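W.,

You were right to be curious about this one. When I first looked at the sequence I had no strong expectations either way, so I just let the prediction run and decided to look at it fresh. Below is the sequence, 85 residues in total, followed by the output.
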Amino acid sequence: KNAKIIIRGLRAVSDFEYEFQMFGMNSKLDPNIQTIFLPASETNHFIASRLVKEVAKLGGDISKFVSKNIADKLEKKLQIQKNEC
């Protein structure tokens, strides 16, 4: 395709490690190729479930991270765990 610019999206640090290796390979194959890395928007990046659970345990609003059904189930699970202690 004779492309000279490659634009790659990054969601997490692990993406960067892989993409940086690809950048190195592409640079060796053709030094005229430029690679641009763009971080994903906050709506498209990875958030660990453990962080969502921690926010829920501390009484925070998790509605931006999970569906209402999941939020309700997690709340119920946390309530059961609290009652067992």
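Here's what jumped out at me. Strands lie at 5-10, 34-39. And, maybe more interesting for your project: The chain has three helices and two strands.

Coffee later to discuss?

I.
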